[in-house]
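Record type: monomer structure entry
Structure origin: computed from sequence
Chain ID: A
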Amino acid sequence: MSPKTGQVSLRAPVPADAEARAALGISAAINRMYGFVSEIPDIMTGDHAERWFEKTVNHPNAWVIEEDGKLVGGVGLNNLDKVDRRARLAIGLFNERHLGRGIGRQAIDLVLQQAFGPLGLHRVDLRVLSFNIRAIRCYEACGFRLEGIERESALVGGDWHDDWIMAILEQDFRARTAARQAGRS
């Protein structure tokens, strides 16, 4: 059994995050789950980390994921559409030692509280490569449902893979939250 995670929180990025991000490096295994495969190992330089920081700080709905006060990943709601009240979730943990510990699940729950609370969204969707079983299990545990499959839409390492489209609606999130709270009573 994987060790349980500590306190997970979301916050706005601060300048010190660039150095913390660089220290976490780049994981080839994690990058593959996003569909990035390279013969040359990626190196997290200070410039890469600064670009990540600038992109995050300038994104209106992006947060740093912290565990016990230390940067472990990033999460955001992209393509926010105020008319249709929808957005697309993007999340990533930066180091393999943070996988399988519930950090992503807790971070997604915090983002969904924002999405279906202050942001007033009706729907949050995402795309995930079909071979990323760890992420799919996490998304399902958070209430996301498979809505469709784009067959052979991603060429990863010379092989074609399907993209899954998953989503959670506001009423699904509220029902799940109520059931969890009733279970604690």
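Annotation 1: The chain has a mean pLDDT of 85.
Annotation 2: Residues 55 and 161 are 28 Å apart (CA to CA).
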